[in-house]
Amino acid sequence: MGAYPCFGFASFALRSSHGGMERENITGVTKTLIVGGGIGGMAAAIALAERGVSVELIDLDPQWRVYGAGITITGPTLRAYRRLGLLDQIKAQGAITNKTRLFRFDGAHIKDLDEPVIEEGLPATGGIMRPVLHKIMQGRVRELAIPVRLGLTVSNLTESGDSVDVTFSDGSAGRYDLVVGADSVFSHMRTLAFPHMAPALPTGQGCWRISMRKPPTLDMGEFYLGHENPCGITPCSPDSIYMWMLTAHEERETFRTEQELFDDLKALLADFGGHAGWIRDTMTPADWINYRPLAAALQPRPWYTGRVVLLGDAVHATTPHLASGAGMAVESGIVLAEELARAGADVAAGLHAYQERRYPRCQDVIDSSIAVGRLQLAHGSPAEHAHILEGALDRLNQPF
Ligand SMILES: Cc1cc2nc3c(=O)[nH]c(=O)nc-3n(C[C@H](O)[C@H](O)[C@H](O)COP(=O)(O)OP(=O)(O)OC[C@H]3O[C@@H](n4cnc5c(N)ncnc54)[C@H](O)[C@@H]3O)c2cc1C
Predict the structure, then answer these.
(1) Which residue among 29, 44, 268, 327 is least packed, with the fewest CB closer than 10 Å?
(2) Is 276 among the domain residues?
């Protein structure tokens, strides 16, 4: 990956090259604030800076951390990361596979699924630990000399023509000609600037996850089916995996303690064989274990107002059924930069084109994911699950 200079002003260069790829610079926007330095915010920051925009990024977390789960990186997500120039690092620090193995929940092998390669030279699928992925993205943000301020959010936004005046939670202020809200599913930016939108809705399911050492004989991703609580294992490096399990969500008065998380997940795995059974028998309370109720929402258009725009879970939050939420966030960051570049001085046209290009694709992911979750809750037919998932995955493989 070649080093790439960060131009403060787009007018210095109309085209720029990165890794041999020519890119049209953005001319309508010079100074952009990204609110939220997660997967979508960092992808947008990288894509905009690479097209000559002067980007600043803020994140609420003073340590700019991410929790310790693994994440599945599907073929389309790998394709998006390749566009950001980060594929080689993900391949080196994550785990890449070309097959997924299907089992009955008790460990009986059903079949191996060949995962299609959707672009020449692109691995079929993979996984990585989230903190490793964040480090890779943070490294590129730093390489591009993007200023990052932490422990900070936006207190107030005032739009004036072609700019937005921002007051930050520490009392400082700035003027930007674009503000990108990428502050996830409970987005504060959405509440501040988009009164026509609503909070994401619970889907009735919850997701258990555990990160731990790899079962010695596991060599590809695995799914365990035919149980009311489906689960799967994703390799994340030569010696680490994460396992997920989907269950019906039950409301509780209190959060589970670490010991309760351990005991409950172990009990949920009681019927499972194969490597899922190995995990049950080998897991310890010291492993990273998490339970999270799921919520999703495709927010109604418009996704922008004046010079404020949303991306990622803030506007297209999905459930993990297609393992594509992060992929959608990265694609949205790339498409935002592409459409702003294409629109030249007409920033509103660029924001509109971004929204129209992203809406149907995110709608497909969210609708398909919610439909599969509903079927799981209703103990619906596995053939119908497979039909919805295969159709959606096939469409996701199409160019974005
Ligand atoms: C259980 C579960 C499993 C998943 N598994 C997968 C998977 O395997 N593959 C996949 O592709 N996707 C998966 N996803 C989805 C994926 O994690 C999200 O879609 C993706 O992280 C969204 O990126 P984002 O940038 O919108 O939000 P995030 O990555 O969550 O980043 C948001 C950032 O904003 C910051 N922030 C929050 N509030 C503020 C504020 N007020 N001001 C400033 N900063 C703020 C946060 O600190 C954070 O850094 C999963 C989701 C869940 C819930």
Answers:
(1) 268
(2) no
